Amino acid sequence: PCQAGKCLRITCSLGLSIAPDDSDDFDILLKNADTAMYIAKDRGRNGWQSYNEEMSRNLKENLRLATDLRGAIDSQQLVMHYQPKFELKTGNLVGAEALLRWEHPTLGMIYPDSFIFIAEKTGLITEIGAWVLQEACFQAAKWHQQGFAHLHVSVNLSPVQFQRGDLEAIVVDALSDTGLPARALELELTESLFIEKGLDVSGVLHRLREHGVRFSIDDLGTGYSNLGYLTRFKVETLKIDRSFISRLTHNSHDEAVVRAITQMAHGLNMLIVAEGIEDESTLERLRLLGCDKGQGYFWAGGLSPDEFNQFLLETAGDE
Ligand code: C2E
Ligand code: MG
Ligand code: MG
Fold first, then answer.
1. In this predicted model, which residue has the larger pLDDT, 68 or 7?
2. Residue 223: CB within 6 Å of ligand 1?
3. Which residue has its alpha carbon closest to ligand 1 atom 42?
4. What is the rounded distance in angstroms from the CA atom of residue 250 to the CA atom of residue 235?
């Protein structure tokens, strides 16, 4: 409808629950349809979903995780692991990516893909994200004190951290509280951040860059296909998504994509990091393609702080 010179575009999300298959009780049918409608909204709106039992199970599980997550920071169930990152040309260890883990008292280790979206929906990501930054900077400052002052740490940021809380102050506090130099901190952003309208992304990035912090774009090639943002927002590094790397030696199309992204990055004065390197032949191919840095199970997955220390001492001997 158009009114007062303004056009509103209205779309509809539908959830379906059918009697008697799903239930023959009206209230239960309505609840099921509501659950299905939320799934339709989550999947991009303007569509419909029909209810199935798995939806209720997932919803229940997620509600439980949301409740448990509230207490997880205070009861020290969140921990950071660190995945080593290497320069491909020299084979030298250059830093690590900080990866969040949740040691749930009854469910065991939970990986971030299963709870970050819950933290984002409930707003807990602000508090968790601030803790992650403090913890990662603290750990990296420790490596520096141990004599490994060339190492940097990369921290993943959620787009929601740009919407809520004062990200700039949180980053600056983490650096000053731990004494880590800003040049040793890299923040990993996702492409989706650049599609969100109304966020002062460029202002925040600009101010943090003035402090000396560096940026990278994570999972490149999986989200947004308009690369225009790369020239508008200055980032130092592009991380090619694991999906391209894992098929690199079997699929010539993936090789073409990696080659093109590498050339583009170098043309724009950016570095390329490949994630998910699992074997020597992939590593060799990436070296030939001119890729700058890499991480992956070929060297190590995410390591606890103690394991990382051990790794550091062993690798330092090789360099
Ligand atoms: P990401 O930033 O792309 O991190 C890389 C993921 O790939 C990690 O999974 C890592 O363990 C896994 N990985 C690394 N090397 C290999 C490999 O050689 N093969 C395979 N198959 N996988 C590999 P993880 O730790 O489960 O993290 C998943 C995602 O969760 C991360 O993807 C990141 O987007 C998000 N995440 C992790 N920590 C944080 C955090 O502190 N804050 C936020 N906002 N997001 C986080
Ligand atoms: Mg990452
Ligand atoms: Mg990634």
1. 68
2. no
3. 156
4. 30
